[in-house]
Amino acid sequence: MGALLRQWRERRRISQLDLSIAADISARHLSFVETGRSRPSRQMVLRLSACMEVPLRERNHLLLAAGYAPVYSAQPLEGRPMAPVREALGVILKGHEPSPAVVVDRAWTLLEANASVAVLLEGVDPELLEPPVNVLRLSLHPRGLAPNIANLGEWRAHLLHRLHRQIDHTADEDLRALHRELSDYPGTEDEPDPEALPAGEVALPLRLRARGGELRFLSTVATFGTPLDVTVSELVIESFFPADEATAAALRAFAAGLAPATGG
């Protein structure tokens, strides 16, 4: 347990002194825990992992390594205890229409989506839509959304940066493998200078080529604020809002079944 704790502390770039102050224990005691000379209580394991914002899944691993039973459940999303969560997700997804919205898990696997997501998927290879669908792979794959993304270099850099931050936070090896895969996709030559911000933009839009024009979206990310379950803590709701009136009108028309979605 001490070695795992030290790995998390170093990953968070926190000194023993700073962590001991945050957890209200002595630096000497923390040092003894990390070297295995002292066995921490269950409460101390939880306090130290909370101070370092260790994900709930990994807090369970720390508890097991220290000889304690896991504290945080990991209920399947389809299970009965998760009914209020599913209901909340359904309300959010339906309420966001006619704009697209999706729910993904820690691995970026698509769990739920509203009907408006179809706007984004024109021309995508059906093979990439076979479950389980990884939304990052779907977005950046040459047979996925990538050919339709007008600002692919910017959007690709944005998604890879998000994934890199998630890897730093979770130390998930599967996500590292996904990052390597996505980094090998075409498009590196289009990546912008990180210091060069798009002129006149307040946030980076997703610019999607569509029949008759271009759709422009701003994205937001939401999570459950007080999760006590591993599954709930790893759910992410990504919503896309129209970035201009032409896109808003196109989404309304698509939802009404009047015409294919086209931007101005």
TrEMBL record:
Cross-referenced Pfam families: HTH_31, MLTR_LBD
Record-linked SUPFAM superfamilies:
lambda repressor-like DNA-binding domains
Q: Which SMART domains match?
A: HTH_XRE
Q: Enumerate the spans annotated as HTH cro/C1-type domain.
A: 5-59
Gene3D superfamilies in UniProt: 3.30.450.180, lambda repressor-like DNA-binding domains (1.10.260.40)
GO MF term list: DNA binding
Q: What is this protein called?
A: Helix-turn-helix transcriptional regulator
